[in-house]
Amino acid sequence: MIDQLLTMFVALPLLGAGISAVLSRRPRATLTLLISVLVLNAVGGILLVSGTAGGEVYAPRVGDWPAGISIPFILDAFSALMIMVSGGLILIAVVFALLSGTGRHRLFPTLIFALTAGVNGALLTGDLFNLFIFIEVMLIPSYGLLVLARRDKGTSRSVTGSRIYVSFNLFASSLLLAGIGFVYGTAGSVHLGELAGAAQESPHVAAATALCLAALSMKAAVVPVHGWLSRSYPTTSPAMTALFSALHTKIAIYGIYRLYAVVYDGDTRHLWIGIVVFSATMLVGVLGAVGEDRMRSILAFHMVSQIGYILIGLALFTPLGLAAGIFYLIHNMIVKMSLFLSAGAIESRFGTDRLDDLRGRIGREPVLAVAFGVAAFSLAGLPPFSGFAAKLSLVWAAVDQAQWAVVAIALVTSLLTLMSMLKIFNAVFAPTFTGADPQEPLGDGGAAVRVYRPTSLGLAAPAVVLAAATLVLGLGAQALLGLAEVAADGLVDTTRYVEALMR
Question: What pLDDT shows up at residue 152?
Answer without folding.
Answer: 42
